[in-house]
Amino acid sequence: MYFEIVKKIRNILKEHHKFYDESLPMIASENVSSALVREIVASDFQHRYAEGDIGNRFYQGCKYVDEVESIVVDLSKKLFNCSFVEYRPISGTIANLAAYASIAKRNDGIISLSVKDGGHISHTEISAAGILGLRFYYFEFDQNRMNIDVDKSIKKIRRTKPRIINLGASLFLFPHPVKEMREIAEEIDAIVVYDASHVLGLIAGKQFQDPIREGAHIVTSSHHKTFPGPQGGLILTNDEELYKKFKNKTFPGLVSNHHLHHKAALAIALLEMLEFGEKYAKQIIINAKTLAEELYNYGFNVLCADYGFTESHQIVIDVSKLGGGDKIAKKLERANIIVNKNLLPWDDLKNVQNPSGIRIGVQELTRIGMKENEMKIIATFFKRLLIDGESESKIREEVINLRKNFKYIEYSFVKNPAYKYYEFEVIE
Ligand code: DSN
To answer: Could you tell me if 51 and 21 lie in one domain?
Structure first.
């Protein structure tokens, strides 16, 4: 009887894969990994325990885990040009929690971007940083530039003296003022943490800022957004004392067994980025700028027109005049275009369910080979659906047609179907 439900679940998953294979996935925090990454995620490593450090585990049977994790460490140091890496956090939020716990104690201050201004929840009182009982301050924000207002924020930092100056965001259009924040950090004895989750692939491809060189003491990150790895987190630094602290907060602090299969698969993604990262990251930014400009020319209120719209994989549109982010994101979804509604700095928090914005990321479309020409076609889909009022079914049909030419992962050593459901042989 229960096997029927097994079949049902597999079928749901297959439907999900088909849906994505016929859609335009444009959630800025997602990506697709290569068959090489997925093969390792599905490997026996997922069943094993390897608590402890490389070469010094609490479990037997880890000799191959040690071997591959040594490679992960070496590759991470090479790609990000840093001296120390903690690769065991199982997510970006856990990486943040380990970093914060290693440098601050209860009632110490943290300054970060508020969620409305694009900060990630883990930077705020409702998530990781809140669990540690920190005091919260938020950067002053320049709504025109969609970036930290440096002068006003520095005044606030001098006044409030937080222990952590936290950069990075979920809505992240332009590089953050790392150098300026490091200078004020020196003055007040604070630590600059830079959450690179959204832009790690752009940093790896040398197309965004280089936070460690610019002065961040610690870089935290997930490795599955612009960086096309399996889900997981990382912490990087050049400071040995800080490394020892966040290493200890990671294990045994916040992770008993890290996810061995994800970390082994991370090695492949690191290699893909060493080999193809620059080309991939360049194309992401060209695609984002192209899409932003086309949409703007069609009359959409794409933010930051005066500043080139974006320097990252993201673009943001204020759709309040079209009915709000919730209505528009759902309408796009019915046409197989997947984006998320997003709070904007001028939104009232009461409107969290229907904020003014939508956020669009082009990293996944880039990963499946789309370039400027496709961005222009996609902009016409937005216009025809949301401005001209063409039917959802007509646009969906055209999305499905467009996707027929973009089935494979690019920027990898192998060419595999991006949304194939990898079915094992099953004997009933
Ligand atoms: N909340 C995610 C995002 O979409 O940006 C990151 O964890």
So the answer is: no
The answer to whether the pTM exceeds 0.85 is: yes
Pairing type for strands 56-57 and 52-53 reads antiparallel
Distant-in-sequence, close-in-space partners of 368: CB < 8 Å, separation ≥ 6 = 32, 406, 407, 408, 409, 410, 418
Q: Is residue 170 within 6 Å of ligand 1 at its C-beta?
A: yes
Given this model, what pLDDT does residue 162 score? Answer: 98
Task: Say how far apart CA 142 and CA 304 lie, in whole Å.
Answer: 11
Are the CB atoms for 89 and 98 separated by under 8 Å?
A: yes
DSSP 423: P
Q: Which atom of ligand 1 is nearest to the CA of 170?
A: 5
Domain count of the fold of the chain: 2
Over the stretch 296-348, which tens digit does the pLDDT of each residue have? Answer: 999 999 999 999 999 999 999 999 999 999 999 999 999 999 999 999 999 99
Class of residue 77 by CB neighbours under 10 A (exposed 0-12, middle 13-18, buried 19+)? middle
How far, in Å, from the CA of 373 to the mean position of ligand 1?
A: 28
Judge if 80 and 197 occupy the same domain: yes
